[in-house]
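User: structure tokens for this one?
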Amino acid sequence: MKKSDEYYIKAAIKEAKKAYKKGEVPVGCVIVIDDDIIASAHNLREARKNTIAHAEILAIDKACRKLGRSILDDATIYISLEPCLMCVGAIMQARMKRVVYGAAEPKFGALGSIIDVSETDGFNHKIEVARGVLADEASSLMKSFFRELRERKD
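Assistant:
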């Protein structure tokens, strides 16, 4: 039986919680092909001191290496938070068929919040997007993280 979007977003949120415990912005994602998680990752920007160590980029890299190919046109990526422009670009370059995300990202989101790349004409690849899956749970995690960060700075 095919698993639901909620099932895989929960797996992405589980990855986000790993980031949270490491002091990273809590974003996680999983990549699914044929109802199997083939790659998972969470943000590691601080640990790696690397701007591009976003969950999506790391998971795409893992999936490509595991499968031995750069095109993931049979994959769906599930992300706890709306992806940024860099990550949407990587998703499109990988030719993923579908993106499912939890919480909107009002400061960097590139699939509806700031811009919606999926609705931009001219690209040779279109992605299907499902927004707001378990958004409250994903949003709550982000809010807790930044509240704790502010409290530590005070």
